[in-house]
Amino acid sequence: MTRTVYLNGDYLPEDQAKVSIFDRAFLMADGVYEVTSVLDGKLIDFGGHATRLQRSLDELELRAPCDMDTLLDIHRELVRLNDITDGLIYLQITRGAPGDRDFVFPDPETTEPTIVLFTQSKPGLADSPAARTGIKIISIEDQRWGRRDIKTVQLLYPSMGKMMAKKAGADDAWMVEDGFVTEGTSNNAYIVKGNKIITRALSHDILHGITRAAVLRFAKEAQMEVEERNFSIDEAKAADEAFITSASSFVMPVVEIDGVLLGDGTPGRRSLRLREIYLEESRKTAV
Ligand code: PMP
After folding, report:
1. Using CA atoms, how far apart are residues 234 and 238, in angstroms rounded to an integer?
2. CATH number assigned to the domain covering 4-125
3. How many angstroms separate the alpha carbon of residue 263 from the centre of ligand 1?
4. Residue 212 CB less than 6 A away from ligand 1
5. pLDDT given for residue 81 in this prediction
6. Cβ–ligand 1 contact at 152 (below 6 Å)
7. Could you tell me if the CB of 144 is within 6 A of ligand 1?
8. Which residue, 37, 42, 144, 239, is the most exposed by fewest CB within 10 angstroms?
């Protein structure tokens, strides 16, 4: 089946959806995005993603091409047209194609933003084998720009980080700045000590994960302690457990950091419990 995608108001076969070479995202990474997961044909945490999208747009003085209710309708229609049971919906909004290259933002009155959405079918997304074994990570220097709270499409360094991990025989990388872990290449990072979940506090240094917000809320409800503070790679290596969160991996246990096994090298009890709670609770509020 040919995938149907959404581009600027139209539902099109993927090979007919074309964007200008002058699009600001192509020339300058001038665009923002969101990834929302789909389980059992329903969108997980859509409200959180829509709110963060609006914030990213506002921070960059980028105009939303439609309201958030319309956006929900488009997401749902793509799920229907592509018959998605489990998978992801990628959304990107850019500053559009002014018809030439110029560092100065184009006049929003004359240059329409570009909006693209497409689906990625991932049967069994919530039943990932990696969640049973846990993943291995390496640490790398954080070399990204200073506004990581804005979800822009400048993903070259995170992409390089994934490649560094792959070459080192690991699954992912945690980035370190001034001696402390910021986050994973495409996820938020946590360590567990006893009953305490430790993760970096929100600031411009990290993306404000939608999954992070939900998981911290569920952790507190499950009587776990939550400490939002910096931690180092050495502290992480000595932790009882570690995990990552993102819309596509949910809660994923980490079992090895820079070649050092955490505990007995199997997913931690609390990480697995949080994964279970997250999946159960977020399915209940899926739309
Ligand atoms: N940090 C970074 C750098 C990310 O790219 C992502 C995923 N897009 C996350 C954290 C997790 O955010 P969310 O839970 O909203 O997917």
Report:
1. 6
2. 3.30.470.10
3. 26
4. yes
5. 98
6. no
7. no
8. 42
If DSSP codes are grouped into helix, strand and coil, which group holds residue 197? strand
4-125 and 129-285 share one CATH topology? no
Q: Tokens standing for 115?
A: 């909006």
Q: Is the pLDDT of residue 1 over 90?
A: no
Q: Where are the domains positioned within the chain?
A: 4-125, 129-285
Over the stretch 35-72, which tens digit does the pLDDT of each residue have? 999 999 999 999 999 999 999 999 999 999 999 999 99
| Distance between Cα 177 and ligand 1 center (Å) | 18
Atom of ligand 1 nearest to the CA of 155: 5
State the catalytic residues: 151
Task: Write down the pTM of the prediction.
Answer: 0.97
The answer to whether the beta carbons of residues 176 and 237 sit under 8 Å apart is no
Kindly state if the Cβ of 199 falls inside 6 Å of ligand 1: no
Q: Are 96 and 112 within 8 A, CB to CB?
A: yes
Count of CA atoms in the C-beta half-sphere (13 A) of 259? 1
